[in-house]
Amino acid sequence: MKLIYPGYDVLSKRHSQSWDEPTRQVIDARLAIGGAPRFLNEAQWQTLDAVCQRILPQPIDRPPVPLAALVDNKLLNDRGDGYRDARLPPLRQAWQLGLTALDAEAQALDGRGFTGLTAAQQDALLSAMQRNELKHSVWKSMPCVVFFSHRLIHDITSAYYAHPTAWSEIGFGGPANPRGYVRMGPDSRDPWEPMAAKPGAQRKAEKRNRHVG
Amino acid sequence: MSDDYLTDALRNPRGRDGRAPDVFRRGGWVPMREYPDDELVDFVIVGTGAGGGPLACRLAEAGFSVVAFDAGAWWRPLEEFASDEAHQEKLFWTGERLCDGDNPLKLGTNNSGRAVGGSTVHFAMVSLRFRPEWFKSRTLLGYGLDWPLDWQDMWRYYTEVEQALKISGPVRYPWGPKRPRYPYRQHEVNAPGLALARACEAMGIAWAPTPLATVSAPREHSPPCVYRGFCVTGCATNAKQSGLITWIPWAVKAGAEIRDLAMVGRIETGEDGLASGVHYHREGEWRFQRARNVVVAGYAIETPRLLLNSANSRYPDGLANSSGLVGKNLMVHTNQAVWGTLEEEVRWYKGPPSLSLSEHWNYEDSGKDFFGGYAFMSQGPLPAAWAGAQTGNHGLWGQALVDEMQKYNHQVGLKIVGETLPQERNCVTLADERDEFGLPVARVTWSECDNDRRLVNHAVDFMRRGLEGIDARDIWAEADGTAHLMGTARMGSDPATSVVNADCRSWDIPNLWICDGSVFPTSGGVNPSETIQAIALRTANRIRELARRGEL
């Protein structure tokens, strides 16, 4: 994937005037999450990992954001959103049910689980979920589209865009305390913000972005 | 060092042992007066947000003994607020609530706080007055119902709130009757705010820098805003004039006691039918605080939940509910947006999220096929919030989502605060499920009506043309957003059709009061916090007056 902000790593500001101690602690803790599942069972974990790769495909030339582990961590902590669509069971049950049902749908399709499908087949199944077309009895009373929008896509994408790797990718300035920002108008960049590469000026942006701290 | 200390306030109550956290100093404490449970205090206040905070402050200043409860934590922003969307969810009400109806609400982020200071700890600081006619919308505009309040009276309390919070705003405000100059100068308008300005100029309507409750110049313990842009996740510099750093410290100084991590589960009534105190859960046990008066200020979900859960043999339908209207007429603001991409770099994460706005359609009545009004504001969502918009009705995932998110620094958006009509079918009731305290959780039912939909369609169409007028590309409309909560214990002039009177005093139980957004009969097209605070200041004045006359 072509980088819009080449050379930009928001973490290079970790010791700058843009990061305070609470922020460093919080991000350190997030970056430490990874490895094996601590809440989901092995089958659910494998399915979740495959789903994450389709919902948020990541480039192969950098360490991936461990999405499955971040979602699993949310389930481990059992931290809700402050509301629940009444058609959904609580957080943990919804995920366990949803992953099991998705796998059952895949089994019904060609006898293999979700992880055994091709990427195109997986996408087709996820699209069917988004269109509320999956009706396997394993879903019980949970409409698959409600699970898709409130849990699956919500929890995976919010985990991704809470990760510094994603912030660097989209050119987000990131944490900004105590320094904040000074240049507020259009087309104006503080020296501690990333520079987008203009056509033919990749090197210039890369050089600047190495020094955003 | 572990990050556990950042959540310590969620586990260990701080308002105790004669002291309270000093929100302006790392690790600091200030003295706090305390009352024993068995002392008959003048006022117990349940909730310390935009309603309970100012009320606790003013009642304590008037010499009443006050104990205010909050279910949430008492934070020290300087050392405990990270610049991080996910971590700062600790400020939201994340306990379970069930949402249904045709348009199940999303709660938490933009409508439900759980902290000392309530939702003002994470609100967007937008500080607007109601249009005067809205206080008599039935009589003057033909919809909703009239408030029992006079707009000129409210105008005075709005001024008092704006002075107290040192609102930063423009010299001239383009809409409504003349208002005094804002105490602090307006903030610099950022790129997304200027895009709104250009869109308004293209459409031939007025715009203004948004009056905001974050200081544009130093104020005592508050430095000027540094435009770090994490406002709706809690201000780590104390520039934001939240209740946590204004009304609450002033209340403590005046002799009020604040009990954090104290969940009130039930209001008790005595033989005489009057409220006698509250049962609350703190430090692992249920306790009972006696009181001469009880004020419920838990906002439009927790307030009816508490009143309904306090049902007893004398009041089988819940307290203050002879009208049957407790929990009914829940209102929200529609919060639809139109988004687009500009050629220029916008970098909308810099500065408060809504630095400019237009109230044109709040004050213009012609050319509408709906009742009510809406304001629209410039936007600056942080990455996870922006991804949330993309995965909503836009329905993006996979490479399409990744590609769209790459345009982050070129996005602009206009978003409404749209009035919805009160409907009895929209309500808060008690569900069968129980929370960690064994209390029934709230069931929140909301469905839009035809008028709500027509308002949204008008707004989306207008804002879309505004973005087209500034040559934005890839324009799309977000369809399912809502914000703010109002109604569920409306004020009125008739006990048969309202829960409280103009003084926020319940018709049924004269020493039971309700003082928060629940008392709104209609929702208006502006953010509710300044109106809630103005009502609280008015209520405090009225209580003082009633006490003086021996009518308390």
Automatic annotation (TrEMBL), chain A:
Residues 181-213 are annotated as: Disordered. It holds the Pfam family Gluconate_2-dh3. This is Gluconate 2-dehydrogenase subunit 3 family protein.
Automatic annotation (TrEMBL), chain B:
Residues 422-536 form the Glucose-methanol-choline oxidoreductase C-terminal domain. Belongs to the GMC oxidoreductase family. It comes from marine sediment metagenome. This is Glucose-methanol-choline oxidoreductase C-terminal domain-containing protein. The keyword Chaperone does not apply. SUPFAM superfamilies: FAD-linked reductases, C-terminal domain (SSF54373), FAD/NAD(P)-binding domain (SSF51905). Residues 112-334 form the Glucose-methanol-choline oxidoreductase N-terminal domain. One of its GO terms (molecular function) is flavin adenine dinucleotide binding. InterPro entries: FAD/NAD-bd_sf, GMC_OxRdtase_N, GMC_OxRtase_C. Keywords: FAD, Flavoprotein, Oxidoreductase. It holds the Pfam family GMC_oxred_C.
